[in-house]
Amino acid sequence: MGMLQEFKEFASKGNVVDMAVGVIIGGAFGSIVTSLVNHMIMPIVGMLMSNVDFSDLSITLRGKTATAEAVVIKYGLFINTVLNFLIVAFTIFVVIKQMNRLKKKEQAKPAEPTTRDCPKCFSTISVKATRCPNCTSDI
Prior knowledge:
The chain is mainly alpha-helical. The protein has helices spanning about 5-10, 15-50, 75-105; strands spanning about 60, 70-75, 115, 125. It folds into two domains: about 15-105, Non-ribosomal Peptide Synthetase Peptidyl Carrier Protein, Chain A (Orthogonal Bundle), CATH 1.10.1200; about 110-139, no CATH class. The strands form two sheets. The protein has a two-stranded antiparallel ribbon. The relative contact order is 0.07.
């Protein structure tokens, strides 16, 4: 089988298409969460912490000179990114948990047993039987 044929089979499988859709939706969802954190959550947190703008929080290790840019650790942006991650991770956790719960409901219940053991001779008999055909005892 040629490589082109193998690739065609791989690309035409449903799982690959589902994964691609998931990646695209995940990227769009990441943008929404970033906007939520940067424009809605962080201003409230900043206001509660004496009007601090987290995106401006940084530590300057070396100031800007004529030949070099400033060396700055922007820990405020890091805090924003961590919050983005936590929100995305929690949301995905909730979605997966709900999907698993729905899958459990969808699974068929196990079929009722059609046979059982005779309590006297331990041979296999029908569930509907009232007398064992092997030992003739009443059940």
